[in-house]
Specification:
Helix content: 40-55%
Radius of gyration: 39 Å
Shape: elongated
Order of helices and strands: HEEHHEEEHHEHEEHEEHHEEE
Largest sheet: 6 strands, mixed
Strand order of the largest sheet: 11-12-10-9-7-13
Amino acid sequence: MTGAALVVAAVLAVVVVALARRVRRLRADVARLPALERQRAEAQAGVALADNAAAHLRRALDAIPQGVVVADVDGRVLARNHAAAEVAASRHGDALVGGAVDELLADALRGVPGERTVELFGPPHRVVAVTARPLPGGALVITDDVTEARRIDAVRRDFVANLSHELKTPVAAIGLLAETLLAEPDPDVAHRLTERVVSESFRVSRTIDDLLELSRIEAGTEAVRQPVPVHLVLEEAADRIRPAAEMRGIAIGVGELSTRVSAVGDRRQLVSAVANLLDNAVKYSPPGSGVEVRATADGTRVAIEVEDHGLGIPARDLERVFERFYRVDRARSRDTGGTGLGLSIVRHIVANHEGEVTVRSVEGQGSTFVVHIPAAPGPVALAGATDDPSASRRSA
């Protein structure tokens, strides 16, 4: 082979080798293509899964009623849920909360946890607790509206204090009367002291009975839902209170319904509610006056009204008369022997029956309490019942 041929052969060999290497690389690349596609598909699936998880986490974060703010070490906000965003976007009172968030967040980023309570006088009055905690690589701030919790706590403290007073007073009186009775030689005086002991014992018993009744009603486990003849509820409640009313010379008038109607509920509880309203009316009515109880219906609701002509209720007390142990006139309440739980029992019974109770009153002229509860469909026809107009009213 000539030298020229050798050169050409060498060049061709080099080209063939180069081409062979190129083919091998191409084949390797081709062989890797499915793996790269799989990796890309897996990466895309991972990204989609991460996006979906992030969306779920975001929705969960927004569902939290407390405001949540998460920031990195530079103070940049990484996450802020809906409740926190509302605080950040608001003005006026909530700006105080936003300022507390910023200050506590700055402290937390320096590694110092903190808490602060911000009171907003409104209206409405609100109390917001702000808590900040350091996190690895940042900080967390939580805002929580604790207005209702504070109110419930205040009600609980008042309830415990009032209950302690209500029970301590008669128990102390019983102890003192018993000590005096032991050393009393005069039979007449001893008899009067014994009567006082019995009276104070009944007072304790009434308080405990009312508390148990209120507890059962609040639990809502005993309420029966069935048609209840309203006129029978009025009559039974009036009969229960009539002896106490007669002792004070107060007449209880029961209005007769022109049409027999019924309410949906628990007869025992409804009688208890009306009786408590009547008892309250009798206690705060002057001797010789009258108390009326009547009912009307419009086909969907029954309205039961208890009206007295007594002392009336000051406007400032109208919103509080249904609270446990609340009394408009504590001195007079001691004389009447009430426990301060009657109207609270009424409110809970009516709430259990998906109704409402309201009061209108004028000082010196009397008060009218109105209970609205669902009516049962259709009239209630009772054997032997009469709609004689001459029996439209009955008085004690």
